[in-house]
Write a structure and sequence with these properties.
Length: 362
């Protein structure tokens, strides 16, 4: 087992990464204030992992409330969030009850938001079961639900007490979901970790083949990058925004196409190519650099063009981005491969051109 630390002072927490950790109740016990937990999961993950996990908690004397949400990005909303509160109240969960998110980023984001709000805040633990959640969403305390006008628009910062990553959980993950997670892994290489990008270019096939050592390495390295950024800028006043490369375009794709049509990582991949195209237009990176990015995403089986929504629709949806200030878009662009910056230098016409160049034409 590898352990990383998210060094946030009084709110610091460990990330344990290893095989078979879901059965290690001993790793959870020190983080429970009281022997009662509510495990939140979804209808796909529940039959895979919930029974054994809840049984091992009960064997250790923990009272377990089970909350099973409908599976899908389209359910990451107020209605589903409210079903968590309904069960917590019906089951007399108190401030000392710990919420446990067992699932992908959708379950993690909603459970974290519920933990931030229920009785003005209760502790929560992340047990991410998708690659995307293991390398990104379970770390850093961003929690949210979607609004019909925009992704993750309603939420809170709320750090978990512990992140427990069992890499064996990835064995059952569909290929399309694994590839979606790889988009966020590649992101770290592109924005700040060039040696990791080189490593990914060499070892991508091992990740696609789910070689345990390669996956463990990529997850640890991704979590280390994420932890470093979160510690430096927990509430996204600066550097943390770099994690959102491709996301302004990508969130527009997810919202515009209807939540769940494009997976988050797929939308981020196409969006990152739009950001790379724009960086090239600004003269920061070369066409060869753009091809390098495109080649890696293609090898990972990810889209390198967005859907045909029309440039105007993209721009309209992008106005709901959280990085808009005074009506002006701030985009994460590539100063060079391995170094991203937040910039407001691109004008509407240039952004429009990059979208058109990188979206499917009908
Ligand atoms: P997801 O939570 O929808 O999970 C993907 C699918 O995989 C679901 O059908 C789920 O039931 C299934 N699944 C989960 N674990 C499985 C397993 N081990 N075996 C088989 N199936 C499994 O999607 P995701 O990609 O994990 O997360 C995407 C969400 O994360 C988006 O809503 C995105 O906005 C959010 N996100 C948040 C942050 C953050 O910092 N909070 C960062 C990145 C993404
Ligand atoms: N996934 C972006 C962030 O955590 O800031």
């Amino acid at each position: 087992m590898e352990t990383l630390n998210v060094a946030l002072g009084a709110r610091a927490y460990p990330i344990h990464i290893g095989r078979g950790l879901l059965g290690r109740v001993d790793l959870l016990l020190p983080y429970l204030r009281y022997p009662k937990v509510a495990v939140v999961t979804d209808t796909t993950v529940a039959p895979l992992f919930l029974h054994n996990f809840a049984a091992s908690l009960r064997e250790a004397g923990i009272e377990v409330v089970e909350i099973i949400l409908p599976d899908g990005e389209q359910f990451k909303n107020w209605k589903t969030l409210n079903t968590i509160f309904d069960v917590l109240l019906e089951q007399h969960c108190e401030r000392s009850t710990t919420l446990i998110a067992l699932g992908g980023g959708v379950v993690g984001d909603m459970t974290g938001f519920a933990a931030a709000c229920y009785q003005r805040g209760i502790p929560f633990i992340q047990i991410p079961t998708t690659l995307l959640a293991q390398v990104d969403s379970s770390v850093g305390g961003k929690t949210a639900i979607n609004h019909p006008h925009g992704k993750n628009m309603i939420g809170a910062f709320c750090q978990p007490r512990l992140v427990l990553i069992d890499t064996d959980n990835l064995n059952t993950l569909p290929d399309r979901e694994l590839r979606s997670g790889l988009a966020e892994v590649i992101k770290y290489g592109l924005i700040r970790d060039l040696p990791f990008l080189d490593w990914l270019e060499t070892h991508l096939e091992r990740l696609l083949a789910r070689e345990p050592e390669a996956l463990a390495y990529a997850i640890c390295r991704s979590c280390q990058n994420k932890a470093d950024i979160v510690v430096a800028d927990e509430h996204e006043q600066g550097e943390r925004a770099l994690l959102n490369i491709g996301h302004t375009f990508g969130h527009a794709i997810e919202t515009g196409m209807g939540y769940g049509e494009w997976l988050h990582g797929e939308a981020v991949a196409a969006g990152t190519l739009m950001a790379a195209e724009l960086s090239c237009q600004l003269g920061w990176i070369s066409a060869v650099d753009v091809l390098r990015v495109e080649t890696l995403f293609k090898r990972a089986g990810l889209p390198v063009h967005g859907p045909a929504m029309g440039g105007e629709r993209y721009l309209e949806l992008m106005q709901h981005d959280k990085k808009v200030q005074g009506g002006k878009l701030h985009l994460v662009l590539l100063e060079r491969i391995g170094k991203a910056v937040v910039s407001q230098l691109a004008g509407q016409n240039e952004i429009f051109r990059a979208i058109v160049a990188r979206s499917i034409h009908v």
